Amino acid sequence: MVRILVTDGMEKSGVEALKAKGFEVVEQFYEVEELKAQIKDFDVIVVRSATKVRQPIIDAALETGRLKLIIRGGVGVDNIDVEYAKSKGITVANTPNASSASVAELTIGHMFSLARYIHIANHTMRQGKWNKKNYEGIELAGKTLGLIGIGRIARQTAKKAYALGMKIIYTDIIGKQEDLADYTFVTMDELLAQADFISLHIPGSKDKKAVIGEAEFAKMKSGAYIINAARGGVVCEEALLAALDSGKVAGAALDVFEEEPTKNERIYTHEKISLTPHIGASTIEAQERIGEEIVQIIVNHFS
């Protein structure tokens, strides 16, 4: 029987579908050393963000040669040593389509939160304060949204923002996209200089180098807003705090952090930052779609 280890949780309907098809499913999170021991007895491992499938884990699995498939329930695979796994004959897959709409909606939600001070007004009103005069916001309509990366989530974000009356500009290492005629391709420097709102939609780099740091903040339009629901570390948190404190950046929204859970008190107490605890894909609909994609990947692999 094919044994599947689900370490970071999976929609119940997906688990039940796998069991109905004759697979054995074990739902259990293991710390690294215990995972090294357990992984030897599984054909498939399904992870989200918490579990890192690095070379030592893969090497442990190779001792029995049983592991055939690693699945990341989500968009990125930067918590998996993909090339190493593939070099050892292990297939790596993810669910890139399932959560795109959910992350895009959260991105738009954060933009509204920043533009109308929802994040901080909600907090101060609970303290009994009526700071109406402090919260004169702006409208999204007519503003320029700059997208760094133009993959599935960015495209969903662009579509929703365009419907709100925003101008869309984007930059991407793959260059201009011919199917995006309503949006304008620009260089990174042009995007930083022109965008009122900047949203990142890129994976983290192996060297963990930030894409947006002190130099990039300096190039931004004064009073811009930045949203990161992509990966922790692509925005340097210390540089962000400096830009917020100086007024160069009017506000920021973070769903992902350099360390999760974040222990950076200056980040989670800053009144100019709208915060969520890495919930981009945390909708009922997205989790159901992720589960369905995982089931299909496993069934196709072992059919």
CA distance, first residue to last residue: 13 Å
Q: How many DSSP H or I helices?
A: 12
CATH-assigned fold name of the largest domain: Rossmann fold
| Oligomer type | single chain
Low-confidence stretches: none
Order of helices and strands, N to C? EHEHEHEHEHHEHEEHEHEHEHEH
Describe this protein's structure.
The structure is a single chain. The chain is built from twelve helices and twelve strands. The protein has two domains: 3-95 and 283-302, Rossmann fold (3-Layer(aba) Sandwich); 100-275, Rossmann fold (3-Layer(aba) Sandwich), CATH 3.40.50.720. The strands form two sheets. Strands 8-7-6-9-10-11-12 form a seven-stranded parallel sheet, sandwiched between helices. Strands 2-1-3-4-5 form a five-stranded parallel sheet. Helix 1 (12-20) runs parallel beside helix 12. The chain has helices at 12-20, 32-38, 55-62, 82-87, 100-115, 118-125, 152-163, 188-194, 214-219, 237-246, 265-268, 284-302, and strands at residues 3-6, 24-27, 44-47, 69-72, 91-94, 144-148, 167-171, 184-185, 197-200, 224-228, 249-254, 273-275. The radius of gyration is 21 Å and the shape is elongated. The chain has 303 residues and is of the alpha/beta class. It starts with a strand and ends with a helix.
